[in-house]
Amino acid sequence: MKALANDKDMILPVCAIFRRFLKTQGLKFTTERALILDAILAKEEVFEADELLNEMRAAEHRVSKATIYRTLKHLMEANIITEVLIDSKQAHYRTIFGREPKGHLVCVETGKIVEFPVTELSAVADKIAKEHGFEPVSHRFVIYGVSPEAQKHPQADRG
Amino acid sequence: MKALANDKDMILPVCAIFRRFLKTQGLKFTTERALILDAILAKEEVFEADELLNEMRAAEHRVSKATIYRTLKHLMEANIITEVLIDSKQAHYRTIFGREPKGHLVCVETGKIVEFPVTELSAVADKIAKEHGFEPVSHRFVIYGVSPEAQKHPQADRG
DNA sequence: CTTGCTGCAAAAGTTTTGCACACGT
DNA sequence: ACGTGTGCAAAACTTTTGCAGCAAG
Predict the structure, then answer these.
(1) Per residue of chain A (159 residues), what is the pLDDT tens digit?
(2) Given strand A113-117, what is the order of strands in its sheet?
(3) Which chain B positions have a beta carbon within 8 Å of A128's beta carbon?
(4) Which of B42, B18, B39 is nearest to B30 (CA)?
(5) Where are the domains of chain A?
(6) H/E element holding A39?
(7) What angle do CA B16, B21, B27 make, to 5 degrees?
(8) Which CATH architecture has domain B1-99?
(9) Residue A138 pairs with which residues in a beta bridge?
(10) Which of A49, B34, B110, B151 has its CA 20 to 30 A from that of B3?
(11) Residue of B nearest to A150 (CA)
(12) What is the pTM of this model?
């Protein structure tokens, strides 16, 4: 089997998509926006704005917090990323362009997040929306539980 | 059919549950906590801390912001309410004691929130958790879409 | 009485915004 | 050149916390 399609190949098409989106909005494709997009595409999992900022600083790609937040907004409008609501403290994001929709299984002890496919659930979600007269747009499924690791290493720290 | 069981009947048992919970934790059942619990039980739908504060002030039940947040925490620990993640700006809560679990259908245009039963989805969620070795605890289903009202009255305000 | 609780205001945390200068088109 | 974007720091916003007086058990 040919294994030519790796993650790197994804970067060009998404850049083009974002660039086109920006153009339609009369916006510019700047160095900073390209750097942020690259950083995001390198992430396999859910990420936070803060995390992105730190990683980019570590990589000597100095981009301000403000620019990160502003770019995340544009990327959401371009349907390249989406918000994932894990907790009420801070927004989490996830790339959706070129990736399958996923649900998230969150360990209530360790905070570990595991993705799972939502094919069957998506169909149910669309059905439910339509039953209520809603035109379905998107959905989020988050399941909370105790991960195998946490079950093995009980903390016993319950007050 | 006898229609004696209205929402008011729910208040006493929940108070008792909360009181008992507080006692087990060495905490006190104060006037403020009782007022907050009453205000919450009067709500049929999802609510926010801020909303609760305003409503209680309007009803001349002066309770501080701090006390509301502190009490919401206790009510969550007592499994009387739960957090519902609708957006990343602010926490939403919902009473779970004595009520069926629900999913939430959110209109992306108007913000309107409609609840729907999650019986079938809950079973799927538990199955998924177990498939990943997780002990299921809870789950949240949020579906975003365009409500019938918003479809009838298009805003046409897309940039 | 002892211990925890309340309200206030300040702190903490994330996200947004105003402004002067810099860059993409 | 024009108009938009950037970084900075301050603002805005929700939620948390420290403290002095107060109330529940």
Answers:
(1) 333 344 445 555 899 999 999 999 999 999 999 999 999 999 998 999 999 999 999 999 999 999 999 999 999 999 999 999 888 889 999 999 989 889 999 998 888 889 999 988 899 999 999 999 999 998 999 999 999 998 887 654 432
(2) A113-117, A102-107, A135-146, B135-146, B102-107, B113-117
(3) 103, 105, 116, 143
(4) B18
(5) 1-99, 101-159
(6) helix A31-41
(7) 110
(8) Orthogonal Bundle (1.10)
(9) B144
(10) B34
(11) B134
(12) 0.83
Check whether domain A101-159 has CATH 3.30.1490.190, yes or no: yes
User: Is the Cβ pair A105, B128 closer than 8 Å?
Assistant: yes
> A-chain residues within 8 Å CB-CB of B86?
85
DSSP letter at A102 equals: E
CA dist B108 and B147 (Å) reads 8
Q: Is B65's CB less than 7 Å from nucleic acid strand D?
A: yes
Q: Do domains B1-99 and B101-159 have the same CATH topology?
A: no
Closest of B76, B80, B136 to residue A143, by C-alpha:
B136
**Does the C-beta of A51 come within 7 A of strand D?**
no
